[in-house]
């Protein structure tokens, strides 16, 4: 199975999801998550790193349905709007009286709700469909100083999350690596790592491991794919076709059938 096929395998998707969940869907280098696409204007927004809600100001508030944000006018009504998405780790939140736009994790949102006195909270179930619960909460006297959130800002270079292999072992499938060998990186940090550090390549024959001098693909830097272009041939790098290394490109897409004596490992 070539690397391109491995990246489309349900086994890799499962392993990738495990690592993303472990790393809380954040880049381990810069702390950012993936960009969010808005149906409203067909643009991408990046979410910054955690900081206090009191530091956030904007003219928009938003609700979200899965990965789609729908913008609506700012209403000065001194309330917080919480949209909870089934099976999602993030809870989107907006406080309209202060023009606050941000993202909280579910634990923070629940802690905020439970910490409010009943007399200061007016719960109204507005909508319940597709596994979503949407509430309006009166926060006239709520203290948001300890609530962590993230700003959203327009970007022409959206972020996507990759699972980076710290090294490669030729005989291993993409999902056959230990947890400590895999790490979540955004596409920008991922490219920087491959350009500056790279990922050593090893051959493991009968328990004997040796490093192989291979040159990362000049286009993808050795990742083999671009998840942001998964709608085009599943995001597989058009230069190396998933081979990842310059020395192996000539054998693609049938690397498994290449004469062993011709391969550098």
SSE topology:
Layout: H1 3-7, H2 10-22, E1 36-38, E2 43-47, E3 51-52, E4 61-65, E5 68-72, E6 79-85, E7 90-95, E8 100-105, H3 106-114, E9 124-129, E10 132-138, E11 148-149, E12 152-155, E13 161-165, E14 168-169, E15 182-186, H4 187-196, E16 201-205, E17 208-212
Parallel strand pairs: 1-5, 14-16
Antiparallel strand pairs: 1-2, 2-12, 3-11, 4-5, 6-7, 6-10, 7-8, 9-10, 13-15, 16-17
Walk me through what this model shows.
It is a single chain. The chain has 265 residues and is of the alpha+beta class. The protein folds into two domains: 3-31 and 160-262, no CATH class; 36-155, no CATH class. Helix content is 14%, strand content 30%. The chain contains four helices and 17 strands. It has helices at residues 3-7, 10-22, 106-114, 187-196, and strands spanning 36-38, 43-47, 51-52, 61-65, 68-72, 79-85, 90-95, 100-105, 124-129, 132-138, 148-149, 152-155, 161-165, 168-169, 182-186, 201-205, 208-212. The strands form five sheets. It has a five-stranded mixed β-sheet, with no helix packed on it. A hairpin with a 4-residue loop joins strand 7 (90-95) and strand 8. The two termini are 17 Å apart. Mean pLDDT is 62; it is low at 50-105 and 116-142.
């Amino acid at each position: 199975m070539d690397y391109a096929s491995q990246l489309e395998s349900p086994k890799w998707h499962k392993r990738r999801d495990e690592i993303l969940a472990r790393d809380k869907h954040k880049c381990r280098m810069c702390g950012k998550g993936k960009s969010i696409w808005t149906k409203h204007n067909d643009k991408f927004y990046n979410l910054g790193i955690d900081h206090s809600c009191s530091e956030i100001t904007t003219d928009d508030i938003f609700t979200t349905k899965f990965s789609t944000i729908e913008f609506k006018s700012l209403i000065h009504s001194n309330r917080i709007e919480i949209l909870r998405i089934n099976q999602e780790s993030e809870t989107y939140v907006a406080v309209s009286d202060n023009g606050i736009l941000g993202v909280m994790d579910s634990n923070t949102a629940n802690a905020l709700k439970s910490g409010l006195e009943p007399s200061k909270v007016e719960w109204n179930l507005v909508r319940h469909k597709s596994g979503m619960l949407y509430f309006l909460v009166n926060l006239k006297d709520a203290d948001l100083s300890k609530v962590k959130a993230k700003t959203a800002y327009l970007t022409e270079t959206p972020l996507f999350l990759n699972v980076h292999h710290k090294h490669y072992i030729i005989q291993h499938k993409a999902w056959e690596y230990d947890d400590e060998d895999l790490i979540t990186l955004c596409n920008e940090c991922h490219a920087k790592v491959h350009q500056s550090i790279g990922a050593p390549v090893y051959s493991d024959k009968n328990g004997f491991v040796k490093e192989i001098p291979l040159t990362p693909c000049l286009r993808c830097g050795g990742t083999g794919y671009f998840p942001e272009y998964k709608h085009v041939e599943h995001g597989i790098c058009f230069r190396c076709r998933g081979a990842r290394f310059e020395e192996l490109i000539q054998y693609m897409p049938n690397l498994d059938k290449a004469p062993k004596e011709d391969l550098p490992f």
